[in-house]
Design brief:
The complex is a heterodimer of chains A (813) and B (423).
Chain A: H1 22-27, H2 58-66, H3 105-115, E1 121-123, E2 125-128, E3 131-134, E4 138-142, E5 170-172, E6 179-181, H4 200-207, H5 226-231, E7 235-245, E8 251-259, E9 276-287, E10 291-298, H6 300-305, E11 313-321, E12 326-329, H7 353-356, H8 361-368, H9 370-380, H10 392-395, H11 406-410, H12 415-423, H13 436-451, E13 458-464, H14 470-486, E14 494-499, H15 508-518, H16 524-537, E15 549-554, H17 565-572, E16 581-587, H18 592-595, H19 598-604, E17 607-611, H20 616-626, H21 635-648, H22 652-676, H23 690-701, H24 705-710, H25 714-730, E18 735-736, H26 737-750, H27 758-770, E19 774-776, E20 786-789, H28 793-800
Parallel strand pairs in A: 9-11, 10-11, 13-16, 13-17, 14-15, 15-16
Antiparallel strand pairs in A: 1-7, 2-3, 4-7, 4-10, 5-6, 7-8, 8-9, 11-12, 18-20, 19-20
Chain B: H1 2-20, H2 23-26, H3 37-50, E1 55-60, H4 67-81, E2 86-92, H5 93-96, H6 99-113, H7 124-140, E3 144-150, H8 152-155, H9 161-172, E4 177-183, H10 194-199, E5 203-206, H11 212-223, H12 233-248, H13 250-262, H14 266-278, H15 289-299, H16 303-309, H17 313-327, H18 335-349, H19 357-369, E6 373-375, E7 390-392, H20 396-405, H21 411-418
Parallel strand pairs in B: 1-4, 1-5, 2-3, 3-4
Antiparallel strand pairs in B: 6-7
Helix pairs in contact in B: 1-14, 3-4, 6-7, 13-15, 14-15, 16-20, 17-18, 20-21
Classes of the chains: A alpha/beta (813), B alpha/beta (423).
GO molecular function (chain B): ATP binding; ATP hydrolysis activity; DNA replication origin binding
Keywords (chain B): ATP-binding, DNA replication, DNA-binding, Nucleotide-binding, Nucleus
Subcellular location (chain B): Nucleus
């Protein structure tokens, strides 16, 4: 067994006192510091971002200094199984440890560490028994020592008919997962079939016929592959979370278990795939000895795209909480909010950092295992409230669903439903058309600001009406820069995103910025003090001492206070030397800088970027780019919608919503037809047509007052008509109720209507006032109440002109 | 016969009252037809549950049209269809229009719904973050969060921070959430601030009072007894045939017409029917036309007119004097000018109803208390009562009506008022 290990993280992320060893660090600077590139990229596993490969910061070299380089030449213990002092291999503990308690081994470990702190080393990658294991890899784990008699591990599967491994292409049955040679199947297959395929035996079973599966030739035992063993729970699968070497030389791995559907509380559900696994939240500590070899657990998308990973491919879409017995979808990586992972955050804290201050040890390990910490805290004080700051992360495990609902997995989406899904505002489009120029500008602005060695404080003001993609463009640029940073082309920087409307008060912005920088929470006054020190006096906060900070303030106009001090303070910082601050402000109004005091506008108004409203071609492009490959919309329907929206506001959100609403109308229509029993004709009925768009536009842009007026009670209509009449006659904007009532009475009298009571009329007026068809004063004013129409009198005339129950009304209008 | 019928009548009355008070029963016919708001709303909410998307809907319409009831039915049905996958957060604009208070309430209800412990001490930032985290987690767990905002227009005040953070979270996260606003203001979506409006998905469902036919159908649905209920068969058939004959009657159409002319909302109809059922003849247990006419007269009470009925003669004098002053286009007058008018009348007609000023003042105060007259303006609170300008709150028409109806009213008063009576 050889060992080529690169020094890596401890799995604790903590702050440490950057006090000593800096000088020493410089000496060790020559040690090659490039982290080994990981062998496979596994988005699902979400490894923490790599530290930049660019000439590194001081801290980085410090880690190298304390890396146990002496490990490398040493030959590690050959016989791990014989190592005397180690706890029982934890895999056997797995079942018992469903609920992590404070007494888990990981809790007890710090004590051992403290005694032999220098000896323990963490690795990102270990070559062990000929296999190369890295953090984030998925592996098979032996269930029990010696429980498996057939130690040989066939990489190659046997055909279920001829029981030989070799001999041409094999195809896998989707039902029993058995392999079949193409030629062994009856009738023989020419090539691998597209889509789902079930072997003749499974199909027969499904049809209810009894059929004998071919028996293996006498004397030959069916050798089970690792996959089969796993699925029959003779093996385990796990994901390596961290690798380390104990002081005694034994290699240990912290792993997160995968679990097969049968082992969950809900059991195998009908929609489970054969190769489906769940990722559990249970973390185990195992010896490297028990690790068998690699397997590949993939997210749905990867699984679909996987072609030749071999037999050890598994599908994993959900996370299973062993404590609460519930499921939760695994979050996609791209959905992770960018702000959460600070790009400049030192991803791999050197484990030796905590040698210096051992008092904090216990805290590190608690952070490793949130559940442990949660339980521990609960014992300390009255339980943690989920909505409080500390409790939030831990209480949320409870929210999972007991059983994965069937409709989610089995439902085949129709074209309309797919269209609805892609038109959703929350779905991130694959590309952002029509904003290339602006994005380029933002990108150069940010790059200029952070790439220069000396970061000049700068400020960019972005304005435009809502729904023109301001925030989205900035975030897309930051995402792109982030990936550039990951690939090492950019200096580390710190990105802070703040939304003015989400702050409780403008002053809170200091608090938020300070918290993002330092991780501490203080009152806003104190935060302002610290921040001013940070930016102008050079007393730096936090560990990202000299990194440039990109501060994005959305809805900037909300920060306006009466004396505009908040905006002044914030915009003043970039002008200070060595502040290293870049501000991007976003707001709707074009002339926000002009509205401010000159001393502020001179600080922010220099560089501006305007996001104009989209014109109809751009809107059309945005919609069609989203709907690419989905045949649900008629072309002129899209054009109609985009022209309509472009004429009104040029708001992309609005255009998307209108299209989605139209798709909903069409979908509703189709579903109603299906309920009746008719199948929609494939051509005209299924797609979104002009009529649907028109309905949607009607709904969005038109107030429903005309319809309500048409459906008013009779006296309501008379009152409205009388009001129009009175207002027209008097030429004033408002009318007294007393006058109105006498008009109504005289009309009713003249047209032989039943006379309403005075109080009834008042009540109807108040009701109309409630729906704001008329504006009125409160009812206690009785006959002195003043009334006013809230809609143009033409609308009233239009609505009441042809009312069937009051034919005489039209002569007064 | 009568003795046996009484418990049956009681039973029937209880059944009918139970129906009238159960919104689910009232609106149950909506379930069957495809074009109602019920099925549209259900489709909207259901699609966001099953297709994992976000939506925001406004339910608009005058009060009493069944917005809340239909929504409750939809939620009830969906909870049955998707157990464990829906959590409903209810907020009311009257109670939670303050942003901090609303986020706290959301956090509280989310905690309650998911059996998490809740802290009253958490700051509003924490609560907002918690809400956003919960939205994400619920989305991952295929659970839908439905926010019901009653009196939606009251949320659309000020900076609308709550709506903004809700709607913004809905368009940036992969969550499944539906925001349902209920409002009787038709222009509720115009009240939204432009950035909030841009994020709002503008689905609107309009609730309007049903037509006359619809109301008649609703009445039949509510009042007709089932054949296979626990009530005796022959009673049910007799009751139903009586009811059908009433429904066919022309007089009944008239009653229905005058009821719906004023207010055709479902809640008004229910109130009316409750009256009708309460007037049921307990001997026979049947409904008669008198029940309906009596109920209608109860619905058409004129409170001001009623309160005019039991005024004393002196108080009527004061009202008539005020009316005369107003007819003389004297815009501003106070107790002293009323007294001057009163004295002049007394001098001219020499009636027996001449009272001292202090007595008149007591009557004047009484009228103020009954809100038949009011102060013309809110200024001058520290001016003595006699000198503050006052206004009449009832029209001369009502005053004349009440004088006619009042049997003890002296003829002089009628005459005094008659002169300027028009029409």
């Amino acid at each position: 067994m050889d060992l080529s290990a690169t020094p890596t993280r401890s799995n604790s992320k903590t702050k440490f006192s950057p006090s000593k060893t800096i000088a020493a660090a410089q000496m060790e600077f020559s040690t090659p510091s490039k982290p080994t590139p990981r062998r496979r990229s596994k988005p699902m596993a979400s490894p923490p971002p790599m530290s930049p490969a660019t000439p590194s910061t001081v801290r980085r070299s410090r880690r190298l200094l304390e890396t146990p380089t002496k490990d490398l030449p040493e030959t590690p213990a050959k016989d791990l199984a014989a190592t005397p002092v180690k706890p029982k291999p934890t895999p056997t503990l797995k079942r018992k440890r469903a609920a992590p308690s404070p007494k888990t081994p990981s809790q007890a470990e710090p004590k051992r560490q403290r005694r032999l702190p220098k000896q323990r080393a963490h690795y990102r990658k270990v070559v062990y028994d000929g296999g190369e294991f890295a953090v984030g890899d998925d592996v098979y784990v032996k269930r029990q020592e010696g429980a498996e008699s057939d130690a040989e591990d066939p990489e190659q599967e046997e055909c279920r008919v001829c029981f030989r491994t070799s001999g041409g292409v094999m195809v896998e049955c989707d039902a029993c997962l058995g392999g079949f040679h193409l030629r062994c199947v009856r009738p023989p297959l020419r090539r691998v079939p597209e889509g789902d395929w079930a072997c003749p035996y499974c199909e027969a079973e499904r049809a209810g016929r009894a059929i004998d599966r071919p028996k293996p030739p006498a004397g030959k035992r069916i050798r089970r592959t690792a996959k089969e063993k796993l699925l029959s729970s003779d093996l385990w699968a796990a994901r390596i979370e961290s690798l380390r070497r104990e002081p005694d030389g034994a290699f240990w791995a912290k792993v997160r278990w995968y679990i097969i559907p049968e082992e969950t509380a809900a059991g195998r559900q009908p929609h489970n795939l054969r190769r489906e696994l769940y990722r559990s939240n249970d973390i185990g500590d195992i010896e490297m000895e028990t690790i068998l070899r690699h397997c590949f657990v993939m997210s749905p998308k990867e699984f679909r795209d996987a072609t030749n990973e071999g037999d050890d491919v598994f599908y994993c879409e959900y996370e299973y909480d062993e404590h609460w017995h519930n499921f939760k979808r695994l979050a996609d990586i791209d959905d992770e909010p960018e702000t959460k992972e600070d790009p400049s955050d030192e991803p791999y804290n050197a484990d030796n950092d905590y040698v210096s201050d051992t008092d904090e040890d216990s805290e590190y390990d608690e952070e490793d295992e949130p559940a442990t910490r949660c339980v521990a805290r609960k014992n300390q004080s009255h339980g943690l409230a989920a909505n409080s700051r500390t409790g939030r992360i831990y209480g949320l495990q409870k929210i999972g669903i007991r059983k994965i609902p069937e409709h989610v997995r089995c439902h085949q989406k129709t074209a309309l439903e797919k269209a609805k899904a892609t038109l959703l505002l929350a779905t991130l489009p694959k590309s952002l058309p029509c904003r290339d120029k602006e994005m380029e500008e933002i990108s150069t602005f940010v790059k200029d600001a952070i790439c220069n060695d000396q970061c000049l404080g700068r400020c960019l003001y972005i304005h435009g009406v809502p729904g023109t993609g301001k925030t989205m463009s900035v975030l897309a640029v930051m995402r792109r820069l982030r990936s550039e940073f990951d690939s090492g082309a950019l200096r580390p920087y710190c990105f802070i995103e703040i939304n003015g409307l989400k702050l409780a008060s403008p002053e809170n912005i200091y608090k938020v910025i300070y918290e993002q920088l330092s991780g501490h929470r203080v009152g806003w006054k104190k935060a302002l003090h610290y921040l001013t020190e940070h930016f102008s006096d050079g007393i730096k906060i936090g560990k990202q001492a000299n990194q440039p900070i990109v501060l994005l303030i959305d809805e900037l106009d909300l920060l306006l206070t009466r004396n505009q001090s908040v905006l002044y303070n914030i915009l003043d910082w970039p002008t200070k030397p060595n502040s290293n601050l870049v501000i991007i402000g976003i707001a709707n109004t074009m002339d926000l800088p002009e509205k401010l005091f000159p001393r502020i506008s001179s600080r922010m108004g220099i560089q501006r970027l305007c996001f104009g409203p989209y014109n109809y071609r751009q809107l059309q492009e945005i919609i069609t780019s989203r709907l690419k490959g989905i045949d649900a919309f008629e072309d002129q329907a899209i054009e109609f919608a985009s022209r309509k929206v472009a004429a009104m506001s040029g708001d992309a959100r609005r255009a998307l919503e209108i299209c989605r609403r139209a798709a909903e109308f069409a979908d509703y229509r189709v579903k109603q037809l299906q309920q009746v029993g008719q199948t929609p004709s494939p051509g005209g009925n299924g797609a979104v047509c002009m009529g649907d768009i028109e309905d949607a536009i009607q709904e969005v842009f038109q107030a429903p007052h005309i319809q309500v007026m048409k459906n008013c009670p009779k006296f309501g209509k008379i009152i409205l008509a009388a009001m129009v009449h009175e207002l027209y006659r008097s030429g004033l904007g408002e009318v007294l109720f007393d006058k109105l009532a006498s008009t109504v009475f005289s009309w009713c009298h003249a047209n032989r209507e039943l006379l309403p009571g005075y109080d009834t009329l008042l009540k109807i007026c108040c009701k109309l006032g409630e729906s704001k068809i008329v504006l009125c004063e409160e009812g206690t004013k009785h006959k002195l109440q003043k009334l006013q129409l809230n809609y143009p009198s033409d609308d009233v005339t239009f609505a009441l002109k042809e009312s069937p129950d009051l034919p005489w009304l039209s002569k007064y209008l | 016969m009568a003795a046996a019928a009484a418990p049956v009548a009681n039973q029937a009355q209880a059944v009918l009252r139970g129906r009238l008070c159960d919104p689910a029963f009232v609106h149950s016919p909506l379930r069957s037809s495809p074009d109602t708001n019920y099925s549209k709303l259900k489709y909207l909410v259901d699609s966001s549950v099953s297709e994992a998307c976000n939506n925001s809907v406004l339910l608009l319409g005058p009060r009493g049209c069944g917005k809340g009831a239909v929504l409750d039915m939809v939620l009830e049905d969906l909870k049955k269809e998707h157990p464990d996958a829906i959590s409903v957060i209810r907020l009311n604009g009257m109670l939670h229009s303050d942003d901090n208070c609303a986020t706290k309430e959301i956090a509280r209800q989310l905690c309650l719904e998911h059996q998490l412990s809740f802290s009253k001490m958490a700051s509003s930032d924490d609560n907002t973050d918690f809400m956003i985290d919960m939205l994400r987690e619920c989305g991952l767990a295929h659970k839908t969060v439905i926010f019901v905002l009653e009196e939606f227009d009251l949320f659309a005040q000020g900076k609308q921070r709550l709506l903004y953070s809700l709607l913004d979270a809905m368009q940036t996260l992969t969550s499944q959430a539906v925001v349902i606003g209920i409002s009787c203001r038709l222009d509720a979506d115009q009240l939204l601030e432009k950035r909030v409006r841009s994020r709002f998905s503008h689905r609107k469902l309009l609730f309007v009072p049903s037509s006359l036919d619809g109301i008649q159908r609703l009445m039949e649905h509510l009042l007709m007894l089932d054949k296979d209920s626990s009530l005796p068969k022959n009673y049910v058939t007799e009751y139903n045939s009586r009811l059908t004959s009433i429904f066919g009657n022309k007089k009944f159409k008239g009653i229905l017409g005058s009821l719906t002319d004023a207010d055709a909302t479902t809640s008004n109809i229910l109130r009316f029917l409750f009256r009708v059922v309460s007037d049921m003849d307990m001997e026979s247990g049947l409904l008669s036309m008198e029940c309906f006419t009596h109920a209608l007269s109860c619905m058409q009470r004129q409170p001001k007119l009623d309160s005019l009925q039991d005024l004393s003669i002196l108080e009527l004098y004061i009202l008539v004097c005020m009316n005369r002053l107003e007819d003389k286009e004297q815009n501003s007058y106070n107790f002293n000018s009323i007294m001057k008018e009163y004295r002049s009348i007394q001098d001219a007609y020499k009636t027996s109803d001449k009272y001292a000023t202090t007595v008149c003042f007591r009557a004047f105060e009484h009228l103020l208390d009954r809100e038949l007259i009011t102060f013309a303006d809110s200024k001058g609170r520290n001016v003595a009562l006699e000198y503050r300008p006052v206004k009449l709150l009832i029209s001369s028409r009502e005053l004349a009506q009440s004088l006619e109806l009042n049997t003890t009213c002296p003829a002089v008063l009628q005459k005094l008022l008659d002169r300027e009576r028009y029409m």
